[in-house]
């Protein structure tokens, strides 16, 4: 259980922060950048939830919780294929089951939509616009986690399921944006303003 009595610790005043295992890193380190990008995506989903109804809100609530799981996963470097133990307890890691749930939800939403015949512009309803914003931030988080994996390739420091989750999430948010526009996609017109 997490207990936070003091929020301002001054521990980061020197430009460093602590990971979940106590390791201190500079705030510009790839792992800290990845954690921040995941947090940004989560915050955008919080805004999106202000514009959604019960079913969509429930999906997004699960996703927000998953993103905190992903942050916990990233806060302690992955140690290969086996579970990482600390104090006799397994570290929290994103799982393929979470990725599969996103895929199922995405497929269910997509089945209700007309086929896509053009690229679409981010926009439409306020809810769809916020979904597109969250999608772009999920893509940024994915890029940051992939970059972290490349930076720590010799250490195998990123859970592969974390990358898969973020990839599925951006697809999920794209389809959700289409659903929130109720099939009235804002279509791209190539060269339409020449």
Written description of the protein model:
This protein has a single domain (25-79, 89-180), classed as Cobalamin adenosyltransferase-like (Hypothetical Protein Ta1238, Chain: A), CATH 1.20.1200.10. It starts with 15 loop residues before the first strand and ends in a 14-residue tail after the last helix. The protein is built from five helices and four strands; from the N terminus they run ββααββααα. Helices cover 54% and strands 5% of the residues. β1 and β2 (24-26) form a beta hairpin.
Measured distance between first and last alpha carbons: 58 Å
CATH fold name: Hypothetical Protein Ta1238, Chain: A
Order of helices and strands: EEHHEEHHH
Q: Determine the strand fraction and express it as a percent band.
A: 5-15%
Can you describe this structure in just a few lines?
Helix content is 54%, strand content 5%. The chain is mainly α. The chain has one domain (25-79, 89-180): Cobalamin adenosyltransferase-like (Hypothetical Protein Ta1238, Chain: A, Up-down Bundle).
Lay out the secondary structure.
Layout: E1 16-18, E2 24-26, H1 30-49, H2 54-74, E3 85-86, E4 89-90, H3 96-111, H4 126-151, H5 160-180
Antiparallel strand pairs: 1-2, 3-4
Helix pairs in contact: 1-2, 1-4, 3-5, 4-5
């Amino acid at each position: 259980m997490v207990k936070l009595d003091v929020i301002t610790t001054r521990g980061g005043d020197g430009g460093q922060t602590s990971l979940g295992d106590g390791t201190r890193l500079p705030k510009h380190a790839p792992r800290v950048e990845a954690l921040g990008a995941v947090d940004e995506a989560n915050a955008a989903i919080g805004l999106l939830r202000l514009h959604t109804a019960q079913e969509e809100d429930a999906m997004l609530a699960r996703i927000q919780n998953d993103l905190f799981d992903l942050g916990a996963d990233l806060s302690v470097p992955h140690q290969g294929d086996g579970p990482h133990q600390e104090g006799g307890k397994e570290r929290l890691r994103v799982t393929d089951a979470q990725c599969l749930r996103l895929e199922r939800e995405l497929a269910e939403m997509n089945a209700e939509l007309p086929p896509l015949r053009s690229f679409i512009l981010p926009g439409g309803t306020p809810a769809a616009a916020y979904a597109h914003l969250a999608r772009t931030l999920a893509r940024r988080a994915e890029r940051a986690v992939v970059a972290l994996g490349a930076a720590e390739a010799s250490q195998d420091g990123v859970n592969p399921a974390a990358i898969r989750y973020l990839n599925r999430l951006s697809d999920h948010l794209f389809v959700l944006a289409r659903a929130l526009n109720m099939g009235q996609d804002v279509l791209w017109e190539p060269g339409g303003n020449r």
